[in-house]
Amino acid sequence: MPRPVTVTYKVWSSPAEVALASARLLAARVEQAVATRGIARIAISGGSTPQATFKLLADPSQPFLTTVPWDKLQLFWVDERCVAPDHPESNYGVCRDLLLSKVPIPEANVFRMEGELDPEQAASRYESLLRNTMKLEGAESPVFDLVALGMGPDGHTASLFPNTAGLDELNRLVIANHVPQKDTWRISLTWPVINQATEVAFEIEGPSKTDILAEVLTGPRDPERLPSQLIRPSNGKLLFLLDEAAAAKLPKASEVFTTPDGSNKVGTLEI
C-alpha cells in the first residue's frame, strides 16, 4: 500500500490569484531555506501555467525582485522538452525570457537540462549534475526545498505521461522518457526524486483540469493512467494551489484562510 498523504488544496477565484500565491510560495521557501542553511534549491516545471508566476517574480511593481535572495537560489528543472534552449518550446528558454533575464540570479546558479543533446545523454548528464551539486553518494536522492509541478489534462505531471516506461523507474534520478502519444522524447526527474522534496506543490488552473483533478484525488488508484497519483511526498504532505474552475468537483473547501487579497478557501483530503 502507498504511504498515506494529507492533501491540502487552497482555492482562489482566478488564475491570476493562483499565480500570485505560487510566486509567494516560491519566495517564502527560498527565504526560509536561505535563513536555515544559507542556500535554497528549487525545481520548477514548464508548460503554460507557471508563466504568469515567472512574470510576477520579475515584475518591478511586486516585492520579489528585492526580497528574494536571488544570489542564494539554485534553480533546477523538473523536466524539459528535447529541443535547443532557444526553441520556443524549451522550458528553460521560456523561464529565461520571462524571469532569469530580469532578476539578479547568478548564471552559475541556474542548472538547465540540456534538451538539445541525445535524450539518454542529457538525462545522464543531469543526474551527474545533481549528484555533484548536492554531493550525493550511492543511492541518495536530492532533497529540493520546493518542487513546483503542473498537471496535464491527461493526468501527467513532470514528463511522466500515462503508460510510459518512466513510470516504472525507481532507481534513477533523471530519465529520458519516450512519449508515444506525442511522438517525442522528454527528460524528467523521476517520481521518487520528486517525493523526497521538503515541499511539493501543484499549481492547476482552468476548466480543462476539473475532471482529471477530481479523478486523481478522489478516484480509484490507477497511476499507469494517472501518473500524478504517483506524487506522494515522503513527509506525508502535498499542496495544491487551484482556481475555482479546477477545484469545482473536489469536496467543498470550507475552512477560510486570509491572504492580502481577501478570504479564500482551503480543504484537505487523505489519499
From TrEMBL:
GO biological process: carbohydrate metabolic process; pentose-phosphate shunt
Keyword match Protease: no
One Pfam short name: Glucosamine_iso
GO-annotated molecular function: 6-phosphogluconolactonase activity
Protein name: 6-phosphogluconolactonase
InterPro entries, per the entry: 6-phosphogluconolactonase_DevB, 6PGL, Glc/Gal-6P_isomerase, NagB/RpiA_transferase-like
Record EC number: 3.1.1.31
Coiled coil regions, renumbered to chain: none
